[in-house]
Amino acid sequence: MNLVFIITVAFGRSAQIARCLLEFHPDIPIEKHVIVQAHYPIDTERNNEEIRLIVDSYEKHCNSPVELWDPGGDIGSAQSQNWALKQLGLRDDDAWINLDGDSTCRDPHWMGAMQQVLEKEPKCAFVSLNSPMVQNFVRGPFEEKHVHGWLGEFRIGIQNRPMPFNMTMWRGSFINQIGEFAQVGPQWGEL
């Protein structure tokens, strides 16, 4: 894996975005963290300004480059990610992480674990964390597999049906192959 990028679509209250960023501590080298100003539709002007201030402060205290990018309006989660990926020029051997603005993970090695799985499983397109929210959508059993790598051994579950994801590492070649994420409609979050 070459470069790892992070995209956070800032669609939510500024306090929610601040919590996500405050609890985010990368455990692998990050090329760039892009926060997309998503124009949350409640008190938009104030919320956008607060997010700008949060990102400015966050950038001063994190260990990797952070930038706030603005597509000019609320274009939806998937389209915000597509827009940012085009700006980044994602290559096949790169990876990117969707850090959902309303999610956190307290395990300090979650990104390293995802990277390890993608390195050990070349046919794997993406790896997503399991969470209580995701568990509500699981349909049928997971196929279980063990992956051994530089962080130790991980037990992974492979789901053969669509399910939601929120903290996910994607292989650049997969995104480049499919072109972009399909979105149900304008200002829509689900793929």
Describe the structure.
This protein is of the alpha/beta class and 191 residues long. The chain has a domain at 4-108 and 165-178. It is built from six helices and eight strands, in the order E-H-E-H-E-H-E-H-E-H-E-E-E-H. The chain has helices at residues 14-22, 44-61, 77-88, 110-120, 132-135, 172-178, and strands spanning 4-10, 32-37, 66-69, 95-99, 126-128, 143-149, 152-158, 167-171. The strands form two sheets. It has a six-stranded mixed beta sheet with strand order 3-2-1-4-8-5, sandwiched between helices. Strand 2, helix 2 and strand 3 form a beta-alpha-beta unit. Helix 1 runs parallel beside helix 2. The radius of gyration is 16 Å and the shape is globular. The two termini are 25 Å apart.
Question: Would you spell out the secondary-structure blueprint of this structure?
Answer:
Blueprint: E1 4-10, H1 14-22, E2 32-37, H2 44-61, E3 66-69, H3 77-88, E4 95-99, H4 110-120, E5 126-128, H5 132-135, E6 143-149, E7 152-158, E8 167-171, H6 172-178
Parallel strand pairs: 1-2, 1-4, 2-3
Antiparallel strand pairs: 4-8, 5-8, 6-7
